[in-house]
Amino acid sequence: MIGFLAALLVLRLLFAASEIQDTNKMYTSGSDALYNCSSVEEICKVPIPSSYNNCSRAGVWKNELQSVMRITCIQGQIRGFYCSAVGKAKSYYPLSGRYLVARGNSVIMGWTVAWQNPSGNNQSSTSWSAISYTGDVIESQWLLTSYSTELWRTVMSNRDRFMKVRC
Ligand SMILES: *[C@@H]1O[C@H](CO)[C@@H](O)[C@H](O)[C@H]1NC(C)=O
Ligand SMILES: *[C@@H]1O[C@H](CO)[C@@H](O)[C@H](O)[C@H]1NC(C)=O
Ligand SMILES: *[C@@H]1O[C@H](CO)[C@@H](O)[C@H](O)[C@H]1NC(C)=O
């Protein structure tokens, strides 16, 4: 009897572990499973299932400095990656954030990139706070915090306008 209960417990633990894995897979398959900053075409390659587009803003976006990001949104969560410079292998960084759908189908959203990847640690991170009134523009303001021993030097701020890329 005890052996049977122990076996049940082990099974239950195994299931719990596979549930966690499934959740991870769920989030990665829609966004950062395939990342490649070598070209916009490459970034556009992976189709985004409609279930990863609850904010109607999932897809590929480009700002005025030609940085490109790919995002998905599901259950309040934004996932994706940011290509700080298209064409450079080292430019891939994961991003994550939160969103909500506001009045008139506007989307209020915020996401963060920590500028560290296998190529290096830039000692900095950027957070964007944004609103998107329509499906083809995201208007954001960002704060970039960089390491310095002098506190007053650590933060820069500016705006970014992201335009939807037609993939
Ligand atoms: C990215 O795409 C380019 C061009 O198709 C390819 O040469 C390269 O191997 C890809 N890199 C990764 C990490 O998949
Ligand atoms: C987003 O999810 C909410 C809650 O599950 C649902 O009511 C709404 O229809 C979804 N919107 C889209 C665009 O999928
Ligand atoms: C971080 O990136 C900026 C812009 O490319 C560069 O000027 C700076 O030297 C980098 N800092 C570190 C610590 O890698």
From TrEMBL:
Full protein name: Uncharacterized protein
InterPro entries membership: Avidin-like_sf (IPR036896), Avidin/str (IPR005468)
Organism domain of life: Eukaryota
One Gene Ontology molecular-function label: biotin binding
Predominant cellular place of this UniProt entry's protein: secreted
Record keywords: Secreted, Signal
Cell location: Secreted
GO cellular component, one term: extracellular region
Signal sequence, renumbered to the chain: 1-16
